[in-house]
Amino acid sequence: MKVTVRLFASYREAAGASSLELALKDGDRGPAVWAALVARFPALARLPSPSGYAVNDEYVDGTRALREHDEVALIPPVSGGATAGLALIEIGDQPIQVDRLLAAVADPRAGAIALFLGVVRDNARGRRVDYLEYEAYETLARREMEKIAGTIAGRWPGARIAIAHRTGRLTVGEASVAIGVSAPHRAEAFAAARFAIDTLKQTVPIWKKEIWEGGEAWVGAEP
């Protein structure tokens, strides 16, 4: 059978392609895709194995059998429908508009709005950073952000959340991610905003490359 494989971030660079067709045996699963790709592109062997798999834009267990014409995405390690509490999701290469996020979560029932901004700093792990590059698996990233909003709505009733994340090249001082949360009280707004950014960093398929003088590396792709 043949499947289409989508590659992101460090995997895309190692293979030299963002999408390719792969012939597999009937019943093969996610790990077989990775093994076939490593055999075809030896540079992949220097990278960590996938932290997850997606089939047809849905996260799946790596043991799920693949079918003819499936689209399989290998998810490198990363540092549905209308959702209650979700006010806004934006993913793109334009500067984040903080006022837009604040307006999206404004609610006359809320007594507090917490705003978190993640900004590009000029150093990381002892190196001076010139700029960063972000890449997203946008369809799945949006779905994971919707899940975050749904969890927040369940834990902190009355909370509203807006999330914006940049892609592309960002220079020092620019905001890469913004999260706005309104809630009836400040403790809930702070807690929900912290939960959102911590979960986003763990589960949402957005990758970061650090570029410094004389080198570059995808964060999370170190062996």
Structure described in brief:
The chain is α+β, with helices and mostly antiparallel strands and 223 residues long.
Task: Describe this entry's structure for a reader.
The structure is a single chain. This protein is of the alpha+beta class and 223 residues long. It folds into 2 domains: 2-75, Beta-grasp domain (Ubiquitin-like (UB roll)), CATH 3.10.20.30; 86-218, Molybdopterin biosynthesis MoaE subunit (Aldehyde Oxidoreductase, domain 3), CATH 3.90.1170.40. Helix content is 28%, strand content 36%. It has 5 helices and 14 strands. A 5-stranded mixed beta sheet has the order 2-1-5-3-4, covered by helices on one side. Helix 4 runs antiparallel to helix 5. The longest helix has 18 residues, at 138-155. The radius of gyration is 19 Å and the shape is globular.
Can you tag this structure with a few keywords?
223 residues; Molybdopterin converting factor; 2 domains; Ubiquitin-like (UB roll); single chain; Aldehyde Oxidoreductase, domain 3; alpha+beta; five-stranded mixed β-sheet; five-stranded antiparallel β-sheet; 14 strands
Proportion in β-strands: 35-45%
CA radius of gyration is 19 Å
Structural class: alpha+beta
Into how many domains do the coordinates divide? Answer: 2
Helix content: 25-40%
Total count of helical runs of at least 4 residues:
5
CATH architecture of the largest domain: Alpha-Beta Complex
Distance between the termini: 31 Å
Oligomer: single chain
The CATH superfamily title of the largest domain: Molybdopterin biosynthesis MoaE subunit
Neighbour order of strands in the largest sheet: 2-1-5-3-4
CATH third-level topology of the largest domain: Aldehyde Oxidoreductase, domain 3
The main β sheet shows up as:
5 strands, mixed
| CATH classification, class level of the largest domain | Alpha Beta
General shape: globular
GO biological process, one term: Mo-molybdopterin cofactor biosynthetic process
InterPro entries: Beta-grasp_dom_sf, MoaE_sf, Mopterin_biosynth_MoaE, Mopterin_synth/thiamin_S_b, ThiS/MoaD-like
Protein name: Molybdopterin converting factor
